[in-house]
Amino acid sequence: MAKIKLPVHLQHGGTHPDDQIAIGEGYLKKLKLPANQTVTLRYGSVRKEIRIVPSGQAALRLSPRLATGLGLHHGAKLCVAYHAASRTLHLGPVVGVLVSRVYSRTPDRPFGAMTAFCAELTEACAQHGGFVYYFTPEDITSGNTAVTGWTLTAGRWIKQTHPAPDVLYNRLTSRKLENRPAVQHFMRDVKSHHGTVVFNEKYLNKTEVFQALRKDHSVQSYLPESYLFKNFAMLQAMCKKHTTVFLKPITGSLGKGIIKISGKAEGGGYLCSFTGLSGVRKLTYPTLTQLFQAISGKMKQRPYQIQQGLRLMEMGGRPVDFRALVQRNLKGQWAVTSVVARIAASNTFVSNLARGGSLSLVGDAVGKSSLPQNVKAGIHNKLRTASLEIAKGIENHIEGHFAELGVDLAVDAVGRVWLLEVNSKPSKDDNTPTVENKIRPSVKQIVMYSQFAWGK
């Protein structure tokens, strides 16, 4: 099935019928599309009988009324394909991005810190072919054929009705919102009724990831010892085996709630470090029993994962870890889009930007690190290989469809790569450097995968 990309032009004035689409004669031949005949138009959830007529222009021309009904605007660029067996003209992909909220008081930044990413994704669709709109759980109604969502048109964010999408990208940043019955019902409904491809459809938690990946022989060497925390006996056993142990909320993010327990403190006892909004708080306990009594209240409030501590490579005395962004590409295959080093702020053990951490190029961080010279050269390739294998492990062993994963990795003092965690909602508002008038590879890749998912 041949596929081309065409800009959308509106046919103002004249008598252009609302059930007619004009396409350049050369493109009609390339698509093997019958001229002056009726075919089925498929655009997202829309199915409509339309007549194809030849045009002398390299564009897809339709009436303003038809365009409004589809939620299209002048200048959009769409992929166009024709399926002869079903006599169906496919336009798309229509990409719906499910976001947490809209800030009505700031119309120029309706999605808060995510607005710049949304604008960039809109531009990527305009350049590479596709149409994207943004909607919230409040925009979901009982039906599944249309969605009220936001588009960026001529520099303004406009809300209008769109067909249910071909591809649904879940960017909800709250488990509570994601688990709403209306949201879950909508995702199931569009998949079953319209064949919508839903990706990153759920959050991952740390226990789920480590239990699943332990089944995969290709990634076992990256896994530190890690379990769902249950009781004092487990804490005691892990502290006997490892100099440092971490307790992490299984659904935590941004370094919130992490507890570091370090062997014997000066003068005996155990040093316990807590991450908080104001930094790291350190307390010493004479015995592990007393430490456990002090933290047991936290352990009852939410599930925690207990994990082997690692002696990480350092840069200027600060711990360094790495975030790899792994995405599916135009062929639907996993590929590494980027790897960056994250350097912890002084007097803390977490590298998250929200906790004062900073970003660095991998080469710069490794080059200035405490690693032995003979292992530095191969670190970047090791990180890329590990992140790819881990993404494939997630695909093979965890239910759900993912097309974008943030894989957090560590390198220990002798150059071994370890998995810290996997994030199915990698941040889109983390101040990642942008280049004016240039689409970042990570954003382009979302459009490329949407085209693959649409064209399957």
Mean of residue pLDDT values: 90
Q: Strand portion, in percent?
A: 25-35%
Q: Let me know the largest β-sheet.
A: 7 strands, mixed, barrel
Q: Supply the number of helical segments.
A: 12
Q: How would you describe the shape?
A: elongated
Per DSSP E runs of 2 or more residues, the count of β-strands stands at: 25
Ranges where pLDDT stays below 50 over 5 or more residues in a row are none
> What is the CA–CA distance across the termini?
10 Å
* Proportion of helical residues: 25-40%
Q: Tell me the radius of gyration.
A: 26 Å
The spatial strand order of the largest sheet comes to: 1-5-2-4-3-7-6
**Could you say which structural class the secondary elements and strand pairing correspond to?**
alpha+beta
Short description:
With 456 residues, the protein is of the alpha+beta class. It has helices at residues 25-31, 64-70, 115-128, 175-178, 181-194, 206-213, 232-241, 288-301, 362-367, 373-376, 379-397, 441-455, and strands at 3-10, 20-24, 37-43, 46-55, 60-62, 77-83, 88-92, 94-98, 131-135, 146-153, 156-163, 167-170, 197-199, 226-228, 244-249, 259-262, 270-276, 279-285, 304-308, 314-315, 318-328, 334-343, 358-361, 404-411, 417-423.
